[in-house]
Amino acid sequence: MDFLRPASWEEALAAKAEHPTAVPIAGGTDVMVEINFDHRRPEYLLDLNRIGDLSEWEVGEKTVRLGASVSYTKIMENLRAELPGLALASHTVASPQIRNRGGVGGNLGTASPAGDAHPALLASGCEVEVESLRGRRMIPIDDFYVGVKRNAMEPDELIRSVHLPKADGPQQFSKVGTRNAMVIAVCAFGIALHPETRTVRTGIGSAAPTPVRAKEAEDFLAAALDEGGFWESGSPIPPSVAKQFAQLASGACNPIDDVRGSAKYRRHAVGIMARRTLGWTWESYRGNERSAQCA
Amino acid sequence: MRVTFTVNGRQQEADDVWEGESLLYVLRERMGLPGSKNACEQGECGSCTVRLDGVPVCSCLVAAGQVEGHEVVTVEGLADYAKQRAEHGSCGSGACGTSIDAAKQWEARPADSQTGENTELSPIQQAFIDAGAVQCGFCTPGLLVAADELLERNASPSDADIREALSGNLCRCTGYEKILDAVRLAAARGEGQTAGQGA
Ligand SMILES: Cc1cc2nc3c(=O)[nH]c(=O)nc-3n(C[C@H](O)[C@H](O)[C@H](O)COP(=O)(O)OP(=O)(O)OC[C@H]3O[C@@H](n4cnc5c(N)ncnc54)[C@H](O)[C@@H]3O)c2cc1C
Ligand code: FES
Ligand code: FES
């Protein structure tokens, strides 16, 4: 094995071009587990820790440019106002020690359907900035997850940052697990209200081969809110609408039975989380902040 | 490969390190610092917790090469670390944690043994003993490092703060109650000491 330690982004791209099989290592919270357990013996490890730029973020007028290696802890501490959905999701990842090292770039690199950042990223409608010596491209998050633990990146590409729209309305994240800390999601749900475009976006974790949006549920809800003039009136959402939204969210799942839960349970739980998180975000849109943050 | 970094204030070097080796392995097997424990090697138990540039991390999940040129504090250096922090004042400003510069200036005053025997205990270590928070002791080093960092950031943590800060550290013996007691005790003693200093 070789350990490559590029000091700059350009050096990292050159190294990845020269050794496309090199495994990038950021926080190492996925990579090191695989190495410790002999599940992976890469020829090259490409350490990204010396590239300071990757651990920085910039808050622009409309978007936040989040460096690939910004830790979950930093997201929770610094970007709660701009990226509330992602900050909530970050807080449910593992433990303080893991959150101090792991970040969104690694979550995207692994592209596990259970990764907690994904529902929030899908709901926000972000773009992933990837680059190689051949050039830079922005991958819309909807096109990023292409299969079980597979993403849309080419072997010579690295993730530089994620460009997320700043929240223009309330966002929520909910996760089912057997305990509060240190738990892989049985399933998870993210929702973002976008009052500026009068749309709602969602993300579902651990209930399909990849993280997915509940598009039919989104379209149904957007139409219902529009037709009923809810964005203007701020009236409560009728239970029938919330119920239909929940059912459609359930229907967007394509889960499996595994040790963490059955497919049936996952479908059911996603429906419940969809209804609850819709309730929380809508109440907060109407100006009634929820007092407790837990489900 | 060769890896050089600072451990408990002293520069250390390890040769013939395998590229996939963890910081935990280097500390335990190459540097003779077995305080950080290896129980799971997958980030689940926290018994390998150390400070990396001031930040608590699972040393089993940090590649040794990633630590080149950085600062590590292990449980063996905790007493000295806490002492220097007390002497040089810690964070009353709200900007908490240890800056890299501060960490660089810090040097452990070597006791007889590199493993930290014969040194005074840090307040959190003493509190663990006094509260009866140690049974088999396997989880203790990681908990001490995590709890010490909590108290550095937050001198009077709520129970929820303590639970959150220690949520990455498993203990199979104590049932956690005595561990919570120990952190509360250390916090109360710390407050007694800093009362009137505006911290
Ligand atoms: C005990 C434990 C509990 C966990 N709990 C959770 C949890 O609750 N929720 C959750 O979502 N995850 C969890 N994880 C998984 C892990 O912490 C996350 O996936 C984390 O986001 C990974 O980030 P990292 O920087 O550590 O990634 P790394 O391990 O460094 O990398 C992960 C993958 O991404 C690639 N990669 C990293 N950076 C880049 C880049 N810039 N460009 C291209 N590829 C890159 C790597 O090559 C690798 O394939 C847990 C892990 C552990 C050990
Ligand atoms: S040995 Fe590192 S977390 Fe268990
Ligand atoms: S005292 Fe035995 S594991 Fe905690």
From TrEMBL, chain A:
Keyword Transmembrane part of the UniProt annotation: no
Top-level taxon: Bacteria
UniProt GO MF annotations: FAD binding; oxidoreductase activity
Keyword tags: FAD, Flavoprotein, Oxidoreductase
SMART domains membership: CO_deh_flav_C (SM01092)
The keyword Oxidoreductase is annotated on this UniProt entry: yes
InterPro entries: CO_DH_flav_C, CO_DH_flav_C_dom_sf, Diverse_Substr_Oxidored, FAD-bd_PCMH, FAD-bd_PCMH-like_sf, FAD-bd_PCMH_sub1, FAD-bd_PCMH_sub2, Mopterin_DH_FAD-bd
Coiled coil: none
Domain FAD-binding PCMH-type: 1-169
Record PANTHER family: XANTHINE DEHYDROGENASE SUBUNIT C-RELATED (PTHR42659:SF2)
Name this protein carries in UniProt: Xanthine dehydrogenase family protein subunit M
Organism: Streptomyces inhibens
Automatic annotation (TrEMBL), chain B:
Single Gene Ontology MF annotation: 2 iron, 2 sulfur cluster binding
Domain 2Fe-2S ferredoxin-type stretches: 1-78
InterPro entries reported in the protein's UniProt record: 2Fe-2S-bd, 2Fe-2S-bd_dom_sf, 2Fe-2S_ferredoxin-like_sf, 2Fe-2S_ferredoxin-type, 2Fe2S_fd_BS, Beta-grasp_dom_sf, Diverse_Oxidoreductases
Matches recorded under CDD domains: fer2
This protein's UniProt keywords: 2Fe-2S, Iron, Iron-sulfur, Metal-binding, Oxidoreductase
Protein's name according to its UniProt entry: (2Fe-2S)-binding protein
Pfam families, per database record: Fer2, Fer2_2
Top-rank lineage group of the source organism: Bacteria
PROSITE patterns given in the database record: 2FE2S_FER_1 (PS00197), 2FE2S_FER_2 (PS51085)
